[in-house]
Specification:
single chain, alpha/beta, Rossmann fold, seven-stranded mixed β-sheet, five-stranded mixed β-sheet, 14 helices, 44% helix, glutamate dehydrogenase (NAD+) activity
């Protein structure tokens, strides 16, 4: 996140802009500008050396008019409550635009998980649930993995909740390992959802994806499967990806003039998205600075890392060749950068539409947990494709009809659905 950017202020400003266009009632605005509930707590963990270390944790529930809150838990050293508030708010709009019966929530712990051993991570995960278990549940609030957390960590959290609740409750957490209540297709869901959106956008814009190139920021789960989807489903070329180097504590771009092989790069990448530079160079890849990905002469940019990465400074680095920005990350483009994107006529697939694949398959996981019956990988991805395709076209139709920016169109669809649910429940 850019040092001058506050994620929650950005989320509120985005909402305010669309609320003005919709002439939304002031009392409804006040309801939706802030989360309904917040939980701040401290988590004492006995470390492997026998000493106790205390971590700060959060869980924010923005709105549950449509259904139980839904949203991941981040373990990140720069986590703040404002970031969690923003992400919870965006989750409300994401679930609404995808038309799934869930609301918006998010959690976080201020920690660098790479500095913890597996046993320390497990104790921290269980400690998180011990602090918040009364406020979550399959019909209240369903957490999931996010930056810095993994399916295994979700398995520990589900197990701790089940112990405290006194019954096996797989539906309290999604993103669990397959075989431990998890769903097939969840690993690739967010990245593939980005690609399904891109496919539909290219069809509308009459662009041949097989003749297109892309650059991706990030190389974690979302970026990896976006890269695979772009090369295998759309038959395009990914020219560059970026990553965070845990050892150097800085970022790099890995590029190849012939196009990258995402499977090879995944084979030399650790669980935090750090690529082995030496092995990449040995195979003819170039190692460039962190912002090089955004300067590439490509047709598509896919920011798939963290918030505020396309901002007033970096937007000036974008090539004139870029025709589409597909936001795999949450809140990667600031308001100032959005204005420049509009002026350039670059087509934007906004974050809470573009990356809704993950929460959609998380919803499918909850449904399977309730049924105690699990679908095949093909069934999951086919259902995901249907949901994402329908969501994209519902937003695109508003974009065409109202002559607004795609982000504003997505907000219009989402806000109208949430407000309608609030009205039907008698909240407003």
């Amino acid at each position: 996140m850019n040092a001058t950017t506050n994620a929650f202020q950005m989320a509120q400003q985005q909402f305010d802009q669309v609320a003005n266009q919709l002439n939304l009632d002031q009392q409804v605005r006040e309801y939706l500008r802030w989360p309904l509930r917040e939980f701040h707590f401290r988590i004492p963990v006995r470390m492997d050396n026998g000493l106790i270390r205390v971590f700060n944790g959060f869980r924010v529930q923005h709105n549950d008019a449509i259904g139980p809150c839904k949203g991941g838990i981040r373990f990140h050293p720069s986590e703040t409550v404002d970031t969690v508030r923003a992400l919870a708010t965006w989750m409300t709009w994401k679930c609404a635009v995808a038309n799934i019966p869930l609301g918006g929530g998010k959690g976080g712990v201020i920690v660098d998980p790479a500095t913890l051993t597996n046993s320390e991570k497990e104790r921290l995960c269980r400690g998180y649930i011990q602090q918040v278990w009364r406020e979550i549940g399959p019909r209240q609030d369903v957490p999931a993995p996010d930056v810095g957390t993994t399916p295994q960590m979700m398995g520990w959290m589900m197990d701790e909740y089940s112990k405290l609740a006194g019954e096996y409750t797989p539906g309290v957490i999604t993103g669990k390992p397959v075989g431990g209540g998890g769903s097939l297709g969840r690993t690739e869901a967010t990245g593939y959802g980005v690609i399904y959106n891109l496919r539909e956008a290219m069809q509308r814009l009459k662009i041949d994806p097989s003749k297109c190139s892309a650059a991706i920021q990030g190389f974690g789960n979302v970026a990896q499967y976006a890269a695979i989807g772009f090369t295998e489903l759309l038959k395009g070329k990914v020219m560059a990806v970026s990553y965070w180097d845990r050892d150097d504590r800085t970022g790099y771009t890995v590029s190849n003039a012939k196009g990258i092989d995402p499977h090879f790069l995944m084979s030399i990448t650790d669980q935090y998205g750090s690529i082995n530079k030496d092995k990449a160079k040995a195979e003819g890849y170039q190692i460039e600075d962190a912002n090089a990905w955004i300067t590439k002469d490509v047709d598509v940019l896919i920011p798939a890392a963290i918030e505020g990465q396309i901002n007033a400074e970096t937007v000036e680095l974008i090539s004139d060749k870029v025709r589409i920005i597909a936001e795999g990350a949450n809140g990667p483009t600031t308001l100032e950068a959005d204005e420049q994107v509009k002026k350039r006529g670059v087509f934007m697939v906004p974050d809470f539409l573009c990356n809704a694949g993950g929460v959609t398959v998380s919803y499918f996981e909850s449904v399977q947990n309730d049924m105690n019956y699990y679908w095949t990988n093909k069934e999951v991805l086919d259902r995901l494709d249907d949901k994402i395709t329908t969501a994209f076209h519902s937003v695109y139709e508003v974009y065409e009809k109202e002559h607004v920016y795609m982000r504003d169109a997505a907000y219009m669809v989402a806000i109208n659905r949430v407000v309608k649910a609030m009205q039907l429940r008698g909240w407003i």
